[in-house]
Amino acid sequence: MVAQAINFLILLLILNKFLFKPVVQLLSDRKKKVEEGIKQSEQAKVELTKAQEEARKIMSKAVEDAQKLQNESKKTAEQEVTKILSAAQMRAEKIIEGAKTSAAAEEEKVERQAKAKIAELVSVAVEKILEQKQDEKEIDRLIQKI
Fold first, then answer.
1. Which among 120, 140, 116 has a CA at the least distance from the CA of 130?
2. How far apart are CA 104 and CA 108, in angstroms?
3. CB atoms within 10 A of CB 129
4. CA 107-113-116 angle, 5° bins
5. What is the DSSP string of the chain?
6. 27-59, pLDDT tens digit by residue?
7. How many C-beta neighbours within 10 Å does residue 51 have?
8. Helix 21-131 and helix 136-145: axis angle, to 10°?
């Protein structure tokens, strides 16, 4: 019985040295790895949250910048339209003024031609009257009528 107790103690020492300590060490290492994994996972969550917040800020800024750019483009386009319309209005006014000037010149030309024609007709009429050799009173009377 003492031999069995000694054998049992020897077996316990051998199992303790070669089996229990390595298993306990393995379990301890595994526990450390799991704890490190959990720690890294929590850090990754925090970093992910930060990255998401930063992405939201960047997107918000991008939307704001795009809105500003759109507003500026719209304002520039409106100014350009106003400028083009103003130039078109000025050109139309110049064309109208040119047409008025041209019409006035044409009217003056027609008036001069009409006066010249009337003067020619009067001259022809006077010649015909003189050809008929009417007396001077008749000529004076006709001239005053004209």
1. 140
2. 6
3. 14
4. 140
5. -HHHHHHHHHHHHHHIIIIIHHHHHHHHHHHHHHHHHHHHHHHHHHHHHHHHHHHHHHHHHHHHHHHHHHHHHHHHHHHHHHHHHHHHHHHHHHHHHHHHHHHHHHHHHHHHHHHHHHHHHHHHHHHHHHHTT--HHHHHHHHHH-
6. 999 999 999 999 999 999 999 999 999 999 999
7. 10
8. 160
Predicted TM-score (pTM) of the model is: 0.45
132: DSSP letter: T
How far apart CA 99 and CA 103 sit, in angstroms, is 6
In the chain, domain spans? 2-145
Q: What confidence tens digit (pLDDT) does each residue in 98-138 have?
A: 888 988 888 899 888 888 888 888 887 777 766 665 556 66
Q: What does the block give as tokens for 144?
A: 């005053």
Q: Tell me which amino acid residue 94 is.
A: K
Q: How many residues does the chain have?
A: 146
Burial 83-114 (b: 16+ CB within 10 A, else e): eeeeeeeeeeeeeeeeeeeeeeeeeeeeeeee
Q: Are 117 and 108 spatial neighbours (Cβ–Cβ below 8 Å)?
A: no
Residue reference for tokens 């009377």: 141
Structure tokens at 5: 């107790």
